[in-house]
Every structure is written in C-alpha cells, then in structure tokens.
Amino acid sequence: MITNEGRVQAAFDSGVFVLKLCGDVRLTLCSTLDTQAQQLARTPGLHSLLVDLREATNVDSTALGFLAKVAIAVEGRVLYKPTIVVDNPDVQRMLEVMGFAQYFAMLKQPFTEISELCDLPEIPADREELRQRILEAHRILMRMSEHNREQFQPLVKMLEAQEETSPGGGEI
Question: I want to staple 73 with a disulfide (CB 3.0 to 4.6 A). Which of 37, 88, 103, 151 is the partner?
C-alpha cells in the first residue's frame, strides 16, 4: 500500500542492508537518512546495500542528497555497487538526470524480497539543523554532476548567505 506521508523502513539480514522509502519523502526525513548513512559507515558485516523506491511517490532533492550520502558512506565497504530498485518512470528519470547511476546500480525488481522491514522513527531537527542538512544534501548533489551544480547553485548560495548574515540561521 502506498501512503502519501513519507516514511523510511530498514532491515539488515545476512550482510544485506535494505533501506525502503515510501510515499512522499521530503526534507523532514533527512535527519533519519543522515543517521542511517552514519550508522552504515560503521556497520560490521555489511556486504551490500539495497534502496527500495518502489513505493516512493516523490523523493525531494534533500532526500536525494542523503541517499547519495548513504552510497558514499558505504563506498569501499560493500562488495557490489549499492542498488536502487525503482519502477516509477518519473522517479527513475529523476535519478538518471541527477547522476545516480555513478553511485548505484538501478533495477526495476530486487533480486530478493525482505519481508521483515522495520519503520525507522523520524528524527526531529530544529530549524538550524534542518538548514544545515539541506545545505549538505545539495552540496553532495552538486558534486555528482554539472547539471546538478547548475540546478542547485542558487539554493546553496542562498543558504550560505543566510548562514553568514544570521547567527541563528535564517528562515527556510
């Protein structure tokens, strides 16, 4: 069942970590995705990473930046390139345009299904933490391709200017 509200589920079994994004995945889940990236970088016995986007109706650019961070976190630690399973043509096109093929193998169906996924709690972030995470996500995306650099440079400059002019950050 597809839900409009975004959520993140996960499972770890026999060295395979599965991260499943469902519904409308937006910047409010970036703290959860960032925490997963940090934990994956330290997970013993990790052999492969599978990101399942089959139930995602939308993934905003901030969440995409943290998906890229997850892939970067496991680079050199997994046996194979991380895999994204995506069957929504719009989401697949967005991933291709953003340059995700350099970090992920993309499939329409997973090799295996993992039925025991657990919902990950949404980790709250205050306004300044959220601004910092949005900035980090978009800087990661900008490094992935020239297209992304052109697309996100104005946003990054605006967020950096807010950082310089306002000690507590600025409005997002």
Answer: 37
pLDDT at 77: 87
| Mean pLDDT, rounded, of the chain | 86
Position 1 scores a pLDDT of 40
Contact 46, 77 (CB under 8 A): yes
Question: The whole model's pTM is what?
Answer: 0.81
Structure-token pair, residue 30: 């970036």
How far is the C-alpha of 131 from the C-alpha of 148, rounded, in Å? 19
pLDDT of residue 14: 87
In this prediction, residue 165 carries a pLDDT of 72
Provide the token pair at 27: 């910047």
